[in-house]
Amino acid sequence: MPHVSGQNATAGASAARKAPHPVVWTVLYLPFGALSGFVTVALTFLATKHGLSISEGALLNGANLLSQWFKWLWAPIVDVTLSPRRWYVYATAASALGVLAMSVVPLGPSTLWLLLLIIAVASLINSAVGMAVEAILAETTPPDQVGRVSAWFQTGNLGGNGLGGALGLFLIVKLPAPWMAGAIMGLLFMLCCLALVWTPRVESTHAHEKPLAAVKSVIRDLKLMLKTKGGLLAGILCILPIGTGAAQAVLTQAEVAAYWGAGQREVQLLQGLFAGAVTAAGCFAGGWLCNRVRPRLAYPIIGLVLAAIATGMAISPATVMMYVVWALAYAFGVGLAYAAFTAFVLAAMGKGSGATKYNIYASASNFPIWWLGLLLGVVAQRYGMRKMLLTEAGLGVVGVAVFALATLRVRRSKLPDDLEPAAPAPT
Q1: Domain holding 402: CATH number?
Q2: Which of 49, 68, 72, 273 is 20 to 30 Å from the Cα of 352, by its Cα?
Q3: Residue 420 gets which letter from DSSP?
Q4: What is the Cα–Cα distance from 416 to 84, expressed in whole angstroms?
Q5: Alpha helix (H) ranges present in 111-228?
Q6: How many structural domains does the chain have?
Q7: Residue 313: which of 269, 400, 321 has the closest Cα?
């Protein structure tokens, strides 16, 4: 990382003291994670109970992720138009309507394509919730707080995923009508907007520029980022099937869980509520690690840990106890990976165009999660659960090997190491 002068470091530390406690990022990011959890846990578990096959059930998560790896296309809008706070409120309200719409449409073969369309549109809108938070985060996080902030930030994402999945499944099953579950979830989404009170006022990076000039500025910022060793290696990490956690969505399906003798209660707790708590612990462990080890080194190491967990689950006896143990271990590993992802992205981003820069990487990272999730659904259906887990583990190891080779090549280049870190914005 470039040397930071004493004056700049003092200014950064002063601004950091005025920034909110990172728990604010957790609360703000909950709607983003919870909408995905509603799809990947609640709806996915019920899929095979309503006449869908395992591969059709995997399409639900595929629809949820489809827009997530295209979101770099509209991320610049957040950087050049409204303030991040306004984007957050509007996108959260629209996401609340989206989760309500998901719960209104009956789940079954005849409505599958309508539900997939609703999920894809809701996910597209929901991506702006994340962009708004990421835009504020990029301008207010000092370099020495990257690991800590990443932990709290991803706790909102993955903890929200578990909470949204567990609560969504419980409400759909227990309430008289499914739409009531969507209405309650939507209300909880809107309550998260209250945390904006504690965020610094950050304007859109290029809001003062004319539209064409603003777009050109965003493109310039991206080029500068990708012409560094850190920026390039971060991009390579994102497109490889490392630390994806893709098997988690497949493991929530009723037919898949039944292979280990697990039912609704186990899935609701282990892939939802308990998974949220364990994943949050993994996020904090990942943040701690990234404060001590360079994040882009920590991430592939964590990828190997996840591959080992998937292998352990594959070779262990197919019992409820093993489902419990390995599901929790897997959730912890996913927390490690996601915190490390945010840390290496924040370290590579530098100044300006925070929403666009973060979502270039986030979109790229969602691509392997998307295609690997669909592949694992097909492998589970045709070849069984053990081979599904071994497939994920094997591809993860191959991904780490490819990254090691890429790192050797990039290190020999004449590119600068990283961009100058972004100075935190005053409150």
Answers
A1: 1.20.1250.20
A2: 68
A3: P
A4: 30
A5: 112-140, 146-154, 160-174, 178-191, 211-226
A6: 1
A7: 321
Task: Indicate the length of the chain as a whole number.
Answer: 427
Q: HSE (CB half, 13 Å, CA atoms) of 293?
A: 15
Distances in whole angstroms, Cα of residue 84 to Cα of each of 230, 273, 285, 353: 26, 30, 29, 12
Q: Examine residue 223 and state whether it is found in any structural domain, yes or no.
A: yes
**Could you identify the residue written with the tokens 């984007």?**
87
Q: What does the alpha-carbon distance between residue 173 and residue 196 come to, in Å, rounded to a whole number?
A: 33
The rounded distance, in Å, linking the Cα atoms of 340 and 158 is: 13
Does residue 4 lie in a domain region? no
* Residues contacting 212, CB < 8 A, separation 6+: none
* Alpha helices (H) along 67-111: 75-80, 84-104
pLDDT < 50 regions, the chain:
1-17, 421-427
The answer to the question of residue 344 being in a domain is yes
As a dihedral over the C-alpha atoms of residue 38, residue 44, residue 50, residue 54, rounded to 10 degrees, the angle is 170
Q: What is the pLDDT of residues 316-374, one digit of tens each?
A: 999 999 998 999 999 999 999 999 999 988 888 766 666 777 878 888 888 898 899 88
Domain enclosing residue 73, as ranges: 17-200+216-411
Number of neighbouring beta carbons within 10 Å of residue 121 = 15
Is the CB of residue 376 less than 8 Å from the CB of residue 246?
yes
Distance (Å, whole) CA 100 – CA 117: 14
Residue at 123 is within a domain: yes
Q: What pLDDT was estimated at residue 423?
A: 39
Element of type H or E holding 380: helix 354-383
Structure tokens at 232: 């390039």
pLDDT digits (tens, 9 = 90+) for 6-33: 333 433 433 443 568 889 999 999 999 9
Whole-number Å distance between alpha carbons of 196 and 183: 22
Question: Is pTM, for the whole model, over 0.85?
Answer: no
Instruction: Give helix then strand counts, H and E, for the chain.
Output: 20, 0
CA atoms of 305 and 397, how far apart (whole Å): 10
In tens, the pLDDT along 184-219 reads 999 999 999 999 999 988 776 555 655 566 556 667
Between CA 281 and CA 300 the distance in angstroms is 19
Tell me the C-alpha distance between 332 and 283, whole Å.
Answer: 8
CB 224, CB 350: distance < 8 Å: yes
